[in-house]
Every structure is written in structure tokens, then in C-alpha cells.
Design brief:
This is EID1-like F-box protein. With 253 residues, this protein is α+β, with helices and mostly antiparallel strands. The protein has nine helices and ten strands. Helix 1 (24-33) crosses helix 3 (49-67).
Length: 253
């Protein structure tokens, strides 16, 4: 259902939008036909603040609902028509791996952020990131985005996630009770909110390492004030290929 409220462009008189906007209904139908293409939504958002508001309220919301329908139903199961943070931030989380721009957040080498073509988010995987006292919370976590052979860091993986109703979650309450510190400089790459350090709060269970096939104590993880999670880990190497070489040798004879 489209909202009837109209927004006026706040750009200068030189802005082309002063000659009138398309109706929100028309914009909706155009982008529905384009299958909510994120690149085109982002381009339209740059035209003016009115278009940016339409994108935030309507287009990014429909993009999220189309790309991850079950996940969106769970995130809105409390009856809310919004999500923690905003739809634009959630859309970015669905398709963007933040990487590691500098060692102030993760103790890893530089890995540039990038868009990903397709990522699965799992509530089951999210459970492995919750300590027993918080297992009733709902957390969706992405499959690992693997970056292999990163020099001295070896094989590293990045993941991201989002909590349902984070403002009333047990994880948030425990972070506050444990007086977890907020990162002094870095902010969430998706919504720009402050970040809690889950490792410093001792809230990363060993089950997360097992599930990700990562070295023990190698997982670093942060959650922002809006419930977006991002993390990184060092992956254990693949099993020895010696057996595979012997197998190939037998068939080459």
C-alpha cells in the first residue's frame, strides 16, 4: 500500500524537479517492472531529496521483500511496518560485504568492500552465534564471503547479519548489563550507528567457530545499535590434498 503523503523537493530553484515529479504510483510501477534493480534505485536516489525519500520509504522496502521474503516476514513478525535502522541500510546489508578497510575494526589485512551477486541468510546459522542465555533471539547470518590467500592472514571470511526486534532482544540487554564498550571511531557500514564489540563482551560462543570452520578465538564480531551484525574470522585450511593426488595418480596409470 503506497503512502499518500507527498514530499517536496528541498533542492534549489535550479533543480529540475521544480517542474514536477512523477507520482509515487508511477515510480512504483516502473521499478516493479525493473524487478527493484538496486543499481537503478541508487541512481534515482541521487536525483534529489524527494526521490531519495521515495526510495527509502518504498523502493528499498520492496527490494528487500523481493530478495529475501521469508527473512523480511520474520523481521516484521512483531507487526511493525518498519525495521531497525531503515530499509536502505537493510538492502545494503543484503548485497554488500563490508570487507576490512583498515585494522581499526578487524585485525586483518586490507580487504576492500564489494557487492555480492547472491547471498543466503540463515536463522539456523544465526543460532550458532548466540550464547545460551540469548537463544530465544532471532538472528539471521549470511554465508561466509571467503577471501583466500590473504598473505600472513591466510584464508579469511566475512559475514553479516541482522537481529529481529533488536531493541528488545536479550543480546542488547546483556551488552548493556555487561557494560560493553562502543568502538571509539568505527561505525556500522550499513546504517552509520555505533558498534558494540561482541568479542570484548565475551558473547561469541565456540559454536560459531565450529559452524564457520574457523580457528578457535579467531572470530571478531560487532553489532550496531540498530541490530546489524558484521564480523570476520580466519578459516582453517582445506583438508590435505595428498590423498586426492594419490587418487589421481592411480587413474592416470
Amino acid at each position: 500500500m503506497l503512502l499518500p503523503k507527498q514530499y517536496r523537493c528541498t533542492h534549489s530553484a535550479a533543480c529540475i524537479c521544480v517542474k514536477g515529479h512523477l507520482s509515487e504510483d508511477a515510480i512504483y510501477l516502473v521499478f516493479q517492472h525493473l524487478n527493484w534493480n538496486p543499481r537503478l534505485i541508487a541512481l534515482m536516489s541521487c536525483v534529489c531529496k524527494w526521490f531519495d525519500e521515495v526510495a527509502k520509504r518504498i523502493l528499498w522496502k520492496e527490494f528487500c521483500r523481493t530478495r529475501a521474503p521469508k527473512m523480511m516476514r520474520d523481521l516484521q513478525s512483531s507487526g511493525s511496518h518498519s525495521v531497525d535502522g531503515n530499509w536502505k541500510a537493510l538492502a545494503k546489508l543484503l548485497i554488500y560485504c563490508s570487507g576490512c578497510s583498515q585494522r581499526t575494526l578487524f585485525d586483518l589485512t586490507h580487504v576492500p568492500g564489494h557487492f555480492v551477486y547472491k547471498t543466503r541468510f540463515s536463522k539456523t546459522l544465526g543460532k550458532s552465534f548466540l550464547i545460551p542465555q540469548c537463544r530465544k533471539d532471532v538472528l539471521y547470518v549470511s554465508d561466509l564471503c571467503e577471501h583466500l590467500d590473504q598473505g600472513d592472514d591466510g584464508d579469511v571470511g566475512f559475514f553479516r547479519g541482522v537481529f529481529e526486534s533488536f531493541s528488545v532482544s536479550r543480546v542488547r540487554k546483556m551488552l548493556i548489563d555487561r557494560k560493553a564498550s562502543l568502538h571509539p571511531t568505527e561505525v556500522c557500514p550499513y546504517c552509520k550507528a555505533k558498534l558494540w564489540n561482541m568479542l570484548q563482551a565475551k558473547m561469541i560462543p565456540r559454536s560459531a567457530c565450529i559452524r564457520l570452520d574457523a580457528y578457535d578465538d579467531s572470530i571478531e564480531c560487532y553489532v550496531c545499535l540498530n541490530g546489524h551484525m558484521l564480523g570476520a574470522c580466519t578459516l582453517q585450511p582445506l583438508s590435505d590434498s595428498e590423498g586426492a593426488s594419490d587418487f589421481e595418480h592411480k587413474f592416470s596409470d
